[in-house]
């Protein structure tokens, strides 16, 4: 028999090489996403150079395009998570499917219905007369864009979903104060924006909790869950379809056609009736053969959740692309024509930068915030995620009717909080739930079983307090943080250029 001899030293060296190769691969993987982001920013600068070389202010426009691309990446990384996070957290769809759906519909919303005209002074918070000098105006917009992008980047790194609208508003306010003083700010408008910090999440949470209470009462804790689902799920689908139809009529296609609030409600009502008629036989067929348990109910909410994620992404792309390209379009117009206009036309290449940046930012950096919104704040299932999506659409409709400025980020995250805190309240106080658990999941003959179960329910905290406090803190300091940073950047820009 031939004995095989091994050289321990050689084997150790080979193992070291293998370990080094593995470590190098891991390190390189960490540089891939920022590397791709830098390549995108560079390509945007090149595209801007192709379109504006030889025109007045071309250097300024190229610099602004670079910053706008960075801003769009950060919007995609942070803000889009609110649209698909609940659906992913409830396992209605995988992270990969969610990223693909969101990227496609965000881009479609931005390019199809993103609007070709935007206000140059975001939300009317700065008096245009105070920054009428083109050089001052460009510096204000540039500082606002950089500060908002940096703040959103920092918030994403910390895992806090923040409002990109509030970030850019804070940036414009801070740079405007540095340029023209405190009197240049429209403080009543700023007051209404500050009020939305409370209104948006509270209203979103309240509506989401109300729908979850309805689902628990009329479906989950019924003796025949499947029969209850056949009766009420088509109604919920109709409400959701109508709400999204009205939402898209008011917000998603406003750049293509102007629809009054009353007409949007009529469109929503018509779509709701049609959806109810279509969904009844579909739910009846889908529910045949399902067991009488909660796991079966989740299957009935899966497809509507996917549609809601797609529609929310479309509406978000149509609305929030202006946060990335609005200041950029204003800079392009001012640099080319030498005047400060109240409204400007967005060039197609500028809109493309915003749409592509939001989608790429989502694909490269979005999973972190998607997981935060989807399953780290509170545990979601398809029914709870459905309540979050429905709340987002209805809250925007109510706010539009009342003329209130609200944040889609605050609404969605507030709805997640509302679902979680309602579950805590319901778990602790609902005698109906306790009776149901006692009859179905606990052996009543076991001494102390029911009492022990109820005591355990009362001790449970279903919303992670650390995430809750972290996100609330990020919301509160978004506007002042972006404002201070923008003011500082404006001073530096003016000192450098002078």
Automatic annotation (TrEMBL):
* UniProt keyword list: Membrane, Phosphate transport, Transmembrane, Transmembrane helix, Transport
Subcellular location(s) of the protein: Membrane
Query: Is Transmembrane given among the entry's keywords?
Result: yes
Q: Which residues cross the membrane?
A: 30-52, 58-80, 92-115, 135-156, 193-220, 232-250, 256-279, 300-318, 346-365, 385-404, 468-493
The keyword Transport is assigned to this record: yes
Q: How does it sit in the membrane?
A: Multi-pass membrane protein
Pfam families hit by this protein = PHO4
Q: What family is it from?
A: Belongs to the inorganic phosphate transporter (PiT) (TC 2.A.20) family.
- What is the official name of this protein in its record? Phosphate transporter
Species classification? Bacteria, Pseudomonadati, Pseudomonadota, Alphaproteobacteria, Hyphomicrobiales
């Amino acid at each position: 028999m031939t004995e095989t001899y091994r050289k321990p030293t050689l084997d150790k060296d080979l193992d070291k090489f293998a370990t080094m190769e593995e470590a190098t691969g891991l390190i390189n993987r960490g540089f891939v996403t920022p590397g791709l982001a830098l390549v995108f920013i560079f390509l945007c600068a090149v595209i801007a150079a192709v379109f504006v070389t030889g025109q007045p202010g071309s250097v300024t426009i190229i610099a602004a395009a670079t910053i706008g691309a960075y801003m769009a990446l950060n919007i995609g990384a942070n803000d889009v998570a609110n649209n698909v996070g609940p659906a992913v957290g409830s396992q209605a769809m995988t992270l990969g499917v969610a990223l693909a759906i969101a990227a496609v519909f965000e881009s479609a919303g931005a390019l199809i219905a993103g609007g070709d005209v935007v206000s140059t002074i975001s939300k009317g918070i700065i008096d245009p007369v105070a920054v009428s000098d083109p050089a001052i105006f460009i510096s204000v917009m540039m500082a606002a864009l950089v500060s908002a992008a940096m703040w959103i980047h920092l918030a994403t790194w910390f895992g806090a979903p923040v409002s990109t609208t509030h970030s850019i508003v804070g940036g414009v306010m801070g740079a405007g104060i540095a340029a023209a003083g405190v009197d240049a700010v429209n403080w009543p408008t700023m007051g209404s924006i500050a009020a939305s910090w409370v209104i948006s999440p509270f209203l979103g949470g309240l509506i989401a909790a109300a729908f979850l209470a309805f689902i628990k009462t009329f479906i989950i804790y019924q003796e025949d869950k499947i029969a209850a689902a056949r009766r009420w799920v088509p109604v919920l689908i109709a409400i959701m379809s109508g709400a999204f139809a009205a939402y898209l009529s008011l917000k998603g296609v406003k750049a293509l056609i102007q629809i009054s609030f009353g007409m949007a409600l009529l469109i929503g009502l018509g779509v709701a009736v049609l959806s109810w008629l279509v969904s009844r036989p579909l739910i009846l067929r889908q529910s045949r053969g399902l067991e009488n348990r909660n796991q079966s109910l989740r299957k009935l909410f899966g497809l509507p959740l996917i549609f809601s994620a797609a529609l929310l992404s479309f509406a978000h792309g149509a609305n929030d692309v202006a946060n990335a390209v609005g200041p950029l379009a204003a800079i392009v117009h001012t640099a080319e024509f030498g005047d400060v206009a109240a409204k400007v036309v967005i060039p197609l290449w500028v809109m493309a930068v915003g749409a592509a940046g939001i989608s790429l930012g989502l694909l490269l950096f979005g999973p972190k915030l998607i997981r935060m919104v989807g399953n780290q704040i509170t545990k979601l299932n398809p029914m709870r995620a459905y309540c979050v999506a429905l709340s987002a659409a209805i809250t925007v409709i109510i706010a539009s009717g009342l003329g209130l400025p609200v944040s889609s980020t605050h609404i969605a995250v507030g709805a997640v909080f509302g679902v979680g805190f309602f579950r805590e309240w319901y778990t602790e106080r609902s005698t109906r739930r306790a009776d149901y658990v006692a009859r179905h999941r606990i052996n009543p003959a076991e001494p102390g079983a029911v009492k022990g179960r109820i005591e355990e329910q009362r001790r449970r905290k279903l919303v992670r307090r650390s995430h809750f406090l972290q996100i609330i803190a990020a919301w509160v300091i978004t506007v002042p943080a972006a404002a201070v940073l923008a003011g500082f950047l404006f001073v530096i820009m003016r000192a450098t250029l002078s």
